[in-house]
Structure formats: structure tokens, C-alpha cells
Amino acid sequence: MDSISIRGGARLNGQIPISGAKNAALPLMALSLLTPRELFLENLPSLADTRFMGELLATLGVEVAYGVNGGGPSSVRLQAPKLVSTFAPYDLVRKMRASFYVLGPLLARAGEAKVSLPGGCAIGTRPVDLHLMALEKLGASIELEDGYVLAAAPSGGLTGAEIEFPFVTVGATVTALMTATLAHGHTTLLNAAREPEVTDVADCLNAMGAKISGIGTSTLEIEGVAALKGATHRVLPDRIETGTYAMAVAIAGGEVDLLGARGDLIESVIDVLLEAGVEISETNEGLRIARNGHRASAANVTTEPFPGFPTDLQAQFMAFMATAEGESTIKETIFENRFMHVPELSRLGADIIVEGQSARVKGVPKLKGAPVMATDLRASVSLVLAGLAAEGETMVNRVYHLDRGFERIEEKLGACGADITRVSS
Ligand code: EPZ
Questions:
Q1: What does the CA dihedral 160, 162, 165, 166 come to, rounded to 10 degrees?
Q2: Is 103 in the pocket of ligand 1 (CB under 6 A)?
Q3: Is residue 385 classed as helix, strand or coil in its secondary structure?
Q4: Rounded mean pLDDT of 136-142?
């Protein structure tokens, strides 16, 4: 299993291109199940997770071709003239939770689906009850059997409904949205997630002929259509990758241009980085991030649904605060168990106390390198960031988590002067 070795202390200077958003790309790929026509996605991040989604879709009857039609390596052509299976087995779904996104589209197009329950994961129990509630409201019958969801549409097909989510959920909003596009009549989603990835999926669905309005608000109105057509869609830039590299510069110091980054996707993050003393400006090509001379100062954050501070940047921000001047309180409200990076950051010398859903971080002047390991994607990258500021060598083990969500991270940071190498074993 590969590891990443970082020798801290180098400032970062240069440019980092921002890739397409993983969490938009995965549901966007699943939209190919909804139509026999071609879906062409551009700006697809090349990640273990997107390749894996391609493999899962292929087992269901989707033809998957990367880099064709002159689209370059970061494009994929997806087409499912006919579904050959409506079954997503445990072995495939357990490897990646986003596999569960095939359930709604299979049900909408084929009238039935058997998809494994994804199970819990390192950051919490992560149930799918609200995905299933939404499908039931659309008229599906749902049974749970031996760890599988068996979903079936009534003989006349699914019917639009009013669906209110008790709290904001990205995944269940996307499931409801994808499925309702092919239901008869009108669907209203209340308290829908407003995350930019949800908006990107809705925009792509409209390009495919869906009739969705209210995009970007918490009330989505969907007028069902009989069939969807093909489309070409460009995946929006990854706001979590953007925020991660912004925090890398905040931690290491220096000045980096994040090419293709969109400030409007991370306003809450920009606000808190400015408060901590990081300089941020918009350029014609994206965002410029700089910290020169002075030590950053502590700032507090609470994770919230969009447009609040994203849970997927909480670990990285904690790594940043570990070396800032003063004490910061970081509160996690989205997932119940998302502080697994704390003991690992402590191994690097961070001073962090967890009290329930909050962590109190007292910044130290210097971290010190050590071998560390993380159990999920964003926690892993927080250790890479901490390594940039630590004296000596930090060895981040189990980097397959990183490869799931960060495209060429060692190349991107290395090109800006970080002393970072992948060690294969
Ligand atoms: C998406 O997960 C992202 N994953 C996560 O990113 C991200 O952290 C999360 O949204 C929040 O922004 C993908 O897009 C593939 P939720 P999702 O449904 O959709 C509870 C990463 O590192 N809930 O918004 O699973 C749930 O347990 C990943 O890239 C239910 O109770 O998140 C959580 O507490 C990690 N029942 C809260 O809602 C349900 O049926 C929000 O989860 C669904 C969710």
C-alpha cells in the first residue's frame, strides 16, 4: 500500500489547477442510467472513485469510454442503450457509498432495483432512510431483505409527490431529484440541499430535458417528463479541493494561484480564512491565496449545510488551526464521528481537546513530523497539510483514501515547492 512522505518547512509558490468536483461527478455519472442516449461529461476528475463508478455502471449496461470524441483525458462518454441489470451487489456498494446513487435512476427507468445497503463508515452511521422515504413518497414499494433494498415501481409508474426532508441531506435530495424527473406529474422537494453539487446535477438533468425549477434554493419543483435525452455537461470545479489547497497555503505560507477555482462556491471558507489572516483575491483565472510573514490567528468554525462551512473541510481547517496563534473552537454538526484525525494530529504535536461535537485547538508554534494514518479521505488530507508545516518527515500511510478524492495531490503540491513524494511498497 502506498504512503506519502512530506518534509515540512517549504513555502508554496506557483499554480495549482483545480479538478472537477468528485461529489458532483459521481451522481452525474449515475444520470447515464436514466436515458438510452449519450451523456458526455467534461472536466471529470481522474480518481479511484470515478473509475469505480464507471465499473459499477458498466455492470448495469452503461458503455463507458474515457477521453473520446476529442474530449481529452478528463472526459467520459456514458451511454446505456439498454439496462442489462438492476442489481448492485454488496461487494461493489460497500467500497463506495456513492454507489447507492444508482438506486433511484434504476427504479425510474427499469421500474425495479436491488441495491445493497451501504452500511456505516468511518465518519458515522450514515443511514439511507431519507433516500428510501423519498422513493416511497414517489410510489415505490421498498423492502429490506438480507442487507439489500428491493425497490419496485407500481405498474403505472412512479408519481410525483411533495417530499419534505426533516433536515438537509445531499444524498437523499439527489436521489429524489434524479428519480422524480421521470415520475408522472409534479414533485416538490422541501428543505432540499442547496450544495453546489446538487445544483450541478439539476443543471445537467435540465440539459437532458428534465423540468426542474428552483435550482439553488431549498425548494425544488420538478415536472416529470416521459423520457430524457442526451447532453454534454461540464463538471463544476471542486470546492473542497479548492478549500484544501487554500488551507495548504495558509499552513505552509507562500502564494499560490488556484486555477479554475470559484470563490462563490466557498464564500464561508474565504470569510474564515480572511479572519485568520490569509490573503485571498480573485484573479481572471481563479483565486490567489497568500500568507506571508506573519503567523495566522485562530478563528472558530461550525460545520453547516451549504452555504455554511463544509464538513468536508473541517479536518483540513483543524490542521491549519493547530499552528495558528490562539485558541480555536471547531464544531462538527453534520456527522457524529468526524474527529478521527484528532489523535493523528496530536501525534504531530497538535494540542486538541475534543468535547462532544466540538474540538478546542490551541495553536502551537511548530508541529513535528511522525508516521500517521487516517481512516477517511478528508482526514488523510488534513495530515498531509499538517505535514507541510511540521519539522522533519511526516509519513502518511494508507493513501488509498487520498486517491479516492484528490487528483495527483503530490504532483500538485510538489509543483509549488512542497517536498512530497509517494512511496510505493
Ligand atoms: C455527501 O454525503 C458527500 N458525499 C459527503 O462527502 C459530505 O460530507 C456530505 O454530503 C455533507 O456535505 C458525496 O457527495 C458522495 P448527507 P451524503 O446525506 O450525501 C444524515 C467526502 O469526503 N442522513 O448530506 O451521504 C447523515 O448521516 C464525503 O467526499 C440520514 O440520517 O451526506 C448525515 O448525518 C464524506 N439519513 C446528514 O444526514 C439519510 O437517508 C447529512 O448527510 C441520509 C443522510
A1: -150
A2: no
A3: helix
A4: 98
